[in-house]
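WARN no homologs supplied; continuing
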Amino acid sequence: MFRSEYADVPPVDLPIHDAVLARAAEFGSTPALIDGTDGTTLTYEQVDRFHRRVSAALAETGVRKGDVLALHSPNTIAFPLAFYAATRAGASVTTIHPLATAEEFGKQLADSGARWIVTVSPLLETARRAAELAGGVEEILVCDSAPGHRSLIDMLASTAPEPQVAIDPAEDVAVLPYSSGTTGTPKGVMLTHRQIATNLAQLEPLITAGPGDRILAVLPFFHIYGLTALMNAPLRMGATVVVLPRFDLETFLAAVQNHRITGLYVAPPIVLALAKHPLVAEYDLSSLKHVISAAAPLDASLAAACSKRLGLPPVGQAYGMTELSPGTHVVPLDAMDDAPPGTVGKLIAGTEMRIVALDDPAEDLGPGESGEILIRGPQVMKGYLGRPDATDAMIDEDGWLHTGDVGRTDEDGWLFVVDRVKELIKYKGFQVAPAELEALLLTHPGIADAAVVGARDDDGNEVPHAHVVRRPSAPGLTEDEVMAYVAERVAPYKRVRRVTFIDAVPRAVSGKILRRELRARPEEAS
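OK structure emitted
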């Protein structure tokens, strides 16, 4: 068993809004949130006051403890206000990918039991359609403005009393992101106030920040990585968060230059752009102190190329998953020069790890030996919403969460993630469940069978690769037709990027798809 070398932190038994904004009065006029496109700024005092007013208006509307509010928005300076307002009113927040289709959105609304939606006007039609499909939605609110819908801006004028809700941080769910776990379709991950607040305290000594630091939030807040690293953590420590709604390289580089960004928390595709794209040379990035990459594996040589080009310490990595609130490992900022290339870091405070043999989970392995990574600690999720069997399959009776990732440590405790047991595909950090795409492919009248695995594209990204068996009635079915069929029905990040036609999907006697066999095949002609 591996234990963190850092001192334990006591559980943070506070609602997440108090755990993050407890020092808002102290930080006062310090800029908390800046819109990276138009410069609109909210100070800590305003974030504290505004989210309390919106919370009062939500409570007056009928939001109660135990309700679920769906937050459906790209990154904006209103996103944190909506999030903390909802939790202060006693609601759990389920975060929705802004590019989700109405059908995907509707499934999440129905599964989570969400009664309220907060969205933005450009996404309103999708939200309306999703609400119709799901049923049970009381009202759709907007962050900006739209005819016929109340806005958060209007709610700032509320004179209703601030809600006084008795929240049990250990039991009450603060956020309900959706994850595919190790296999299968997306499931609601129940993360309590204590779990996500304690994870912030676990990370704080290793990833320090404070007034004067400027963090660029380009990865989405709806994803647990963005929610923790780009919203909750910096706002807890008094840093300034510069918010961008999406990644566009020129806008991103201009924001780093113009806002004098000091810290970047990104995913591997952005590291690739920083290392290789000619535009980078046209901007002054000298304010940067560090870059940390997470959400998907980062090639060590790419990390080295990025740090060399920017004249920075080596790019650090972090490791975790939605079911872990999300962090378990990180390369500390003060150890970036000493960390071995390719490591995802060391165990954070209060966290334990086992690495077990792939063919015998009871056999623990030592340094240098590769096996499945198991994690135990205060950040382990409460469970999957309404899916006790899936929860039991993920967390054993001793409290160990089975990550589905294969890793090894060196003698100094640095972790290296080397493979994946789980079937999940990580496209640019976003989770894509093969089973979800396979179920969709089988609805095509020309497809008899299908299996989806992860494959690497020319930039090193993992992409969904469909292996398709044509029906005899559709001998002319093409790769483009298959990809278009999927693209019309899923969010862009879930699209199939490669298709191979095969005679039969390899399966075990049990019927389980032999994905490793498909990954090992040479490319077959279509």
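The first strand starts at residue 2 and ends at 3.
OK
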